[in-house]
Design goal:
With 353 residues, this protein is of the alpha+beta class. It is built from 8 helices and 14 strands. It folds into 2 domains: 194 residues, Fructose-1,6-Bisphosphatase, Chain A, domain 1 (2-Layer Sandwich); 144 residues, D-Maltodextrin-Binding Protein, domain 2, CATH 3.40.190.80. The strands form 3 sheets. A 7-stranded mixed β-sheet has the order 3-4-5-6-7-8-9, sandwiched between helices. Strands 11-10-12-14-13 form a 5-stranded mixed β-sheet, with helices on both faces. A two-stranded antiparallel sheet has the order 1-2. α4 links the parallel β10 and β11. α1 packs antiparallel against α2, α2 packs antiparallel against α3 and α4 runs antiparallel to α7. The longest helix has 21 residues. It starts with 8 loop residues before the first helix and ends with a helix. Bound molecules: 1,6-di-O-phosphono-beta-D-fructofuranose and magnesium ion (2 copies). The site of 1,6-di-O-phosphono-beta-D-fructofuranose has 11 residues, from β4. Its main location: cytoplasm. It is found in: Cytoplasm. Its cofactor is Mg(2+).
Length: 353
């Protein structure tokens, strides 16, 4: 059986970096180190049922979520793969409340990495696809060794973003602003090989929407109207969409990236800012979506124009095929019309349900 390509991710990164004569290789190293960490995590995910890595650690993270052993393991692996290289001035992780400085015994560098070490934690035990999401920024602060300011940058300033899906195969998808490229892990040689060069979200994409409709009663009027329209129950849509919801953001996003469609985690009366985190979930996927010809919005604003104020801030998210994200914005505009402040529309609906 012939393998499709022999372009490893390391070679792909180095070739991409050749376009920048001033490049030092530091950036390539960071992406290679993330790819290495992904291999380590993939190894544990693959044998999760056999290893003592299922279940909870007993800790509660800054999100108020019970920490899964795989969340913690993935966090440690990524941290340790990046902390000693001399390329970073710090990190931020879903699993750690504050900015993560580089240990004093190691030199620092001019980049910072933000990551969701294990995305889709609720699916781990059920052997459903989970993932890792990462975002890379340049150091901007005057702080000698880096500080939270270096992580609190709007998404359009990202210099790279990517994710890993631990599914039927392990795939790493990344962008440095020159298109979106997918690599599949060849377990027999432990190499990520280029399998999906230059990914573009099909347009018009498949008529697929992903949302947790269990939250319907807490949704705004505009959000309900949108989903009613997608399902063709408002009488104005002769071609209803299909619903697909895995419950792992990375896996839902990945499917929509390849097939078209869109994912949404709206704000609602219980979570006025939505559930997903801006800096290490929404913003990196937004960079990929835009690079692949799609869009990412809060329903009102481009995700990557949001000026972040805190490491773990949440945002409503509509992401995928551009035409479907625009459709969502049109329905949500109804909420803004009905209420001076969109949040009022949310509360009004939720409370009355
Ligand atoms: O169970 P819900 O409310 O639908 O939320 C599912 C969403 O929460 C998440 O699991 C949150 O991410 P983490 O697992 O990294 O905390 C997303 O992957 C997913 O899209
Ligand atoms: Mg997540
Ligand atoms: Mg997570």
């Amino acid at each position: 059986m012939t393998t499709k390509s022999v372009i490893t991710i390391e070679r792909h990164i180095i070739e991409a970096e050749r376009q920048y004569p001033e490049a030092t290789g530091a950036f390539s190293n960071i992406l290679s180190d993330v790819a290495f960490a992904a291999k380590m995590i993939a190894k544990e995910v693959r044998r999760a049922g056999l290893a003592d890595i299922l279940g909870y650690t007993g800790e509660v993270n800054v999100q108020g979520e019970d920490v899964k052993k795989l969340d913690e393991y993935a966090h440690e692996v990524i941290f340790k793969a990046l902390d000693h290289t001399g390329h970073l001035c710090g990190m931020a992780s879903e699993e750690v409340e504050d900015f993560i400085p580089i240990p004093d015994r190691f030199p620092t560098g001019k980049y910072c990495v933000l990551f969701d070490p294990l995305d889709g934690s609720s699916n781990i035990e059920a052997n459903v696809s989970v993932g890792t999401i990462f975002s890379v920024h340049r150091k901007i602060s005057d702080h000698e060794r880096g500080c939270a300011e270096d992580c609190l940058q709007p998404g359009y300033k990202q210099i790279a973003a990517g994710y890993v899906v631990y599914g039927s195969s392990t795939m790493l998808v990344y962008t440095t602003g020159n298109g979106v490229h997918g690599f599949t892990l060849e377990p027999s040689i432990g190499e990520f090989l280029l399998s999906h060069p230059d990914i573009r979200i099909p347009s018009p994409g498949q008529r697929i929407f992903s949302a947790n409709e269990g939250n319907y009663r807490n949704w705004s009027a505009g959000q309900r109207a949108l989903v009613d329209h997608l399902k063709g129950v408002d009488g104005t849509n002769p071609k209803p969409f299909s619903a697909r919801y895995i419950g792992s953001l990375v896996a839902d996003f990945h499917r929509n990236l390849l097939y078209g469609g869109f994912f949404m985690y709206p704000a609602d009366s219980k979570s006025p800012n939505g559930k997903l985190r801006l800096l290490y979930e929404a913003a990196p996927l937004a960079m990929i979506a835009e690079q692949a010809g799609g869009r990412a919005s809060t329903g009102f604003t481009r995700i990557n124009e949001i000026e972040p104020t805190s490491l773990h801030q949440r945002t409503p998210l509509y992401i995928g095929s551009a035409e479907y994200v625009e459709l969502a914005e049109q329905f949500l505009a109804q909420d803004a019309q009905h209420a001076a402040d969109p949040a009022d529309a949310l509360v009004a609906v939720g409370a009355g349900a």
